[in-house]
C-alpha cells in the first residue's frame, strides 16, 4: 500500500510518502490512522487533529472507507482559502 501525505502533513512528518504492506487488523482508513499514530508522538500529534481529508485510489473517502493491500491512500489537511 502507498500512503501519500500532502500540505502541512508532509512537513510535520518529514515525508511525503510511505510504502508498506497493509498491517494486520487494518480494514479501513480509521484503522490505518490509528496504526500510523502509534509510530511516535509527532505522528500522533499530526494525524490526531480529526480534521484530515482522505482519498483512496484518488477518490475522496471517509474514515470508514475500506482499504486493501495495493491501494493508494492520500491524507491531507483541509484546504483553506483567504
Task: Provide a short characterization of the protein structure.
This protein is α+β, with helices and mostly antiparallel strands.
Ordered list of secondary-structure elements with their pairings:
Blueprint lengths: L1 E4 L2 H6 L3 E3 L9 H9 L3 H7 L5 E4 L2 E3 L10 E5 L6
Parallel strand pairs: 1-5
Antiparallel strand pairs: 1-2, 3-4, 3-5
Instruction: Show unreliable segments.
Output: none
User: How many beta strands in the DSSP annotation?
Assistant: 5
Give the topology string: H per helix, E per strand. Answer: EHEHHEEE
* Rg measurement, Å: 12 Å
Distance between the termini: 35 Å
Q: What portion of residues is helical?
A: 25-40%
What general form does the structure show? Answer: globular
Mean pLDDT: 92
Strand content: 15-25%
Q: Summarize the biggest pleated sheet.
A: 5 strands, mixed
Across the major sheet, the strand order is 2-1-5-3-4
Amino acid at each position: 500500500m502507498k500512503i501519500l501525505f500532502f500540505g502541512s502533513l508532509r512537513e510535520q512528518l518529514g515525508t511525503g510518502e510511505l510504502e508498506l504492506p497493509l498491517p494486520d487488523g487494518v480494514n479501513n482508513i480509521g484503522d490505518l490512522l490509528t496504526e500510523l499514530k502509534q509510530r511516535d508522538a509527532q505522528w500522533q500529534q499530526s494525524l490526531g487533529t480529526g480534521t484530515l481529508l482522505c482519498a483512496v485510489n484518488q477518490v475522496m473517502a471517509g474514515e470508514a472507507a475500506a482499504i486493501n493491500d495495493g491501494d493508494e491512500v492520500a491524507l491531507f489537511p483541509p484546504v483553506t482559502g483567504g
